[in-house]
Amino acid sequence: MTALLEVEDLRVAYGKIEAVKGISFKVDAGEVVTLIGTNGAGKTTTLRTLSGLLKPVGGQIKFGGKSLKKVPAHQIVSMGLAHSPEGRHIFPRMTIEDNLRLGAFLRSDRAGIEKDIQRAYDLFPILGERRKQAAGTLSGGEQQMLAMGRALMSQPKLLMLDEPSMGLSPIMMQKIMQTIAELKSQGTTILLVEQNAQAALSLADHGHVMEVGSIVLSGSGRELLHDESVRKAYLGED
Amino acid sequence: MTTQTTAPKTSGGVAGDGSTGLIGIPAHLGRALATGGGLLTVVSTFLAWTWTAEFPGDLTVYGYPGGLQVLVLIAGALTTLLGLASYGVRGLGWLVPAGADAALKFAALSAFATTWYTVIAISAQLGGLVNLEPGAYVAAAATLVAFLGALALPFERPEPDPFDPDDTGWEQFKHTSGNNWQTVKAAFASGTPRTLRPLPSYVEILIIVAVLAVALLVFTYGIGTEYDELFVGFLITAGLGFAALNKAGLIAQATQITSRHTNITVCGAFIAAACFPFTQTDDQYATLGVYILIFATVALGLNIVVGLAGLLDLGYVAFLGVGAYAASMVSGSPSSPFDLHLPFWAAVLVGAAASLVFGVLIGAPTLRLRGDYLAIVTLGFGEIFRITANNLDGTSGPDVTNGSNGISSIPDLNVLGFDLGVQHDIGGFTIGRFANYFFLMLIITAVVVLVFRRSGDSRIGRAWVAIREDETAALAMGINGFRVKLIAFAVGATLAGLAGTVQAHVTYTVTPEQYLFAGTTPPNSAFLLAAVVLGGMGTIAGPLIGASLLFLIPNKLQFLGDYQLFAFGLALVLLMRFRPEGLIANRRNKLEFHEEAEAPTTLSKTGA
Ligand SMILES: Nc1ncnc2c1ncn2[C@@H]1O[C@H](COP(=O)(O)OP(=O)(O)OP(=O)(O)O)[C@@H](O)[C@H]1O
Ligand SMILES: [Mg+2]
């Protein structure tokens, strides 16, 4: 069986500066794979390239067996790759419900959309309580829930989350991580970028450690969690 | 559904601690003065204000208010009614759902300003106070007393910001004026109106009809004002009177009712507009009507591009020009290069199609740009259109547009055997040429309103809003940013072209100079944009009202002369400072411009 997402020797550059210097990894269906690494390692750049917002200068991206190289961003979404971007990017002046509906922009099955909106409210009850409120009035953590719920509305085969725990309190973060685990148990495939290595690795089937544009270490989540150098660099132990 | 109703503040009640008026008259005396002053104002308008009919409007007659006196009469009556309502007089409570005091202040200010403006205008124009008759003194005194009385009404004073002793003198001055300004603002503030319980449908519809009738009346009065002074007086009375009704909470309640019956309101508004020519006895004001309608319709089209999709187009008038040129060339005009006389429906299609093509041609390369760049490029294309039209005259280029002379002698339209160029008698009313075109233009306006409403509520409308709010996120939702922007651009262009086809026939001549970026006569790109911004982006009523004001004010105030553009600029700056969301705010824009009501949308990154 081929992997759902296959990235091979991917290179991305901003002008002359290469931010991603030939990375390769794959994500199998039903898996949670995490990318961890320091600030500026190129994680966000990788995700943005996968969802078509940036054009790679080299390498291969295959999603469901098809190359994504020439596919524009809006079609990548329709192929089943959803991206919850770094910094959330919710639509602050729209209601929560309108935000969710926009997540389903490419779908036309009304009944299905209503059902999935309900599912998002079940997943994040706070969103259901505030459905008519402008999304900008939500707290940071609630906005992150909305961003995740919105990304799920496109019924993705692969959900890419860029730092869902950014700026959240420990409690909120735990909730988000719980939700990711819940999504995983429901069979959603997830590519997770996180600063919180401990949480991400305990959840993930596979992990990759990025440093200045390259993957320097790969392994199962458990292996990396117990790896000496990872513990030193990312978990703050000496 | 909120059940909480903010109690109207101090409407007739006893002033609480710390809530005193702006000036030191006891509150109960102030209220009496305001109400009595209002009544006396009404009486004074039945007296003569001046001895000679040289001042326009004939203010010399006893027992019969004329010209500006009518305006004062209305403002005085409003003051009296609000004054009585503030006493809690039974049967007047419906007038003041948000409390009477702030409204009373505005009404009294309205009467005061209009009266004093009139008195000063009479003295200035006729050379001295000797030209005033006792009636004028009575009116001036009555409105002054009423206004001072209203200012004495108590209000909740805001907590002043404490001083910082280290401040310099200038900072202290700024600080004090800031505090004073807050106090004045609070003095004119009112509570939120109580929510209106749903009335029986027919009552609500009758209310809508009444509101529309009043609107038509006000508009007709404004358009029919015959001299500068009356129009200025009209603006003062109408503006401050509107503020009074707004503070009273009536506008909010009317909005609640109309938003429960949007379809009826829109249809009613069109019927009211269609009544306009019947209120006019000669074609002169119908002329204004049709020009306003053209301007307003194009502004509404621009609102799709700017207000819904958020694309700043500074060359929009070019699309009006393309439509007008295209229609004029197939109109059978002798100066058209084509010897072609298409029926109107075909000319409309040609004009709209030409604008559509032009819109796509300009949009396709430019819409990949963001923000400021798009504005600059569209500005450039607008000018290129005008200059090209100027140069295609047979000497600088091929002869297509007849250069600066334009396409002239465009024949009048004949739609289904109905000649729009001549008078018709319909049911005892004489409908002149401009009134004919007014009706035709009204149909075009209806089309634009329909397109605006349908697209705003549709999938594409949601995509526009998403792109406007956050392009990155919109792309991540699978929205094809470029395509939806191009659609907005093309739809906007087509609608402007549609209006252009009628405009060509109304004006007889199409010349490049009608399609400037900025000029003193609308429509031009700058005025169109101003109409949208001033009226309220993303709304239907906004650009229509904005365009009406922007057309009427320069048209009526001829004395502004060379200072027109200066006054226009000043007005825009003030408006952007004090009401950035425009006269009519749409719910979303309110959030956009008053950020204090909103939580931060993105957190700054806390590095690991
Ligand atoms: N738009 C841009 N233009 C130029 N350089 C950029 C741009 N965006 C990112 N970079 C650079 O590319 C490198 C990788 O950035 P990226 O955002 O992918 O890092 P990251 O791993 O997501 O970091 P973080 O954990 O801080 O989010 C950084 O050195 C960054 O400065
Ligand atoms: Mg990042």
Could you characterize what this model shows?
- The complex is a heterodimer of chains A (238) and B (608).
- Chain A is of the alpha/beta class.
- Chain A has a domain at 1-80 and 190-237: P-loop containing nucleotide triphosphate hydrolases (Rossmann fold).
- Chain A is 38% helix and 26% strand.
- In chain A, the strands form two sheets. Chain A has a six-stranded mixed β-sheet with strand order 6-7-8-3-9-10, sandwiched between helices.
- In chain A, strand 7 (158-162), helix 7 (170-185) and strand 8 form a beta-alpha-beta unit.
- In chain A, helix 3 packs parallel to helix 6 (140-152) and helix 4 packs antiparallel against helix 6 (140-152).
- Chain B is an all-alpha fold and 608 residues long.
- Chain B folds into two domains: 21-157 and 178-257, no CATH class; 283-544, ABC transporter involved in vitamin B12 uptake, BtuC (Orthogonal Bundle), CATH 1.10.3470.
- Chain B has helices at 27-44, 68-86, 101-126, 134-151, 169-187, 201-224, 228-248, 250-260, 262-275, 283-308, 317-329, 344-366, 371-391, 433-456, 459-469, 471-476, 481-507, 525-535, 541-556, 564-578, 587-593, and strands spanning 414-415, 418-419, 424-426, 429-431.
- Chain B has a two-stranded antiparallel sheet with strand order 1-2. In chain B, strands 3-4 form a two-stranded antiparallel ribbon.
- The longest helix of chain B is centred in the last third of the chain and has 27 residues, at 481-507.
- Chain B is globular, with a radius of gyration of 27 Å.
- At the A-B interface, helix 2, strand 6, helix 3 and helix 6 of A face helix 15, helix 16 and helix 21 of B.
- Residues 43-44, 86 of chain A line the site of magnesium ion (MG).
- The site of magnesium ion has 3 residues of chain A, from helix 1.
